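Morning!

This is the sequence you dropped in the shared folder:
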Amino acid sequence: MVTFAALRFSEDENIADRVYWYRADFPVKEGERVLAPVGSHDRLQCARVERVLEAKEEDAPYDIRLIKRVAAHLGARSFLWEGRACLELGGVRYDSKRFTRFGTFACLFGEPPETAPDGFQIVPVAAYDDFFEREETFSLFARLAELREGALLVGEEGTLVPLANAILELAGAKVKQPVSPLGAEAYLLDLGYPKAVLTKLAEKLR
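The structure's back. Tokens below.
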């Protein structure tokens, strides 16, 4: 059996009067708010679950080939990994109706674990001080943005918080502590990130 959810995107005046069917790979309940991709660019938007249907694929309420998947419950997602707190940089609002995507980057504070969660690769930063100045760092981020792989950035909190905030700002999110009065892009450019990498990251995060 497959879980199908009828979603209403009430924050988007263009489609607020309609209900759209999505597939949910995790439990959802009527009345819950979730994030789901909308439009040709699959921008994440907030929706309310209007109805839940359990059915076989052949009994789907809409053409199964055209049904998209619910991305996550509403909100930035955090998780514990081997007793360490991780923050996934998705589900963060960056304008009146859109949210950053999940599955791109996560920050983990503390010493690196021996293995990473499924879908992530460990990128240690505590091993050397010039991590954010190295060309291989920029190449890695460009590849992650291109392939939409997960990166688990590991290091001391003081090292990672500015980067996490800069990435969130780059995605258009409002953060409590902006990294620079000139903005995240200027901050990252000053660190040496190529403009093309930042453009690609901003597009993939949104």
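Headline: The radius of gyration is 18 Å.

More detail when I'm at my desk.
O.
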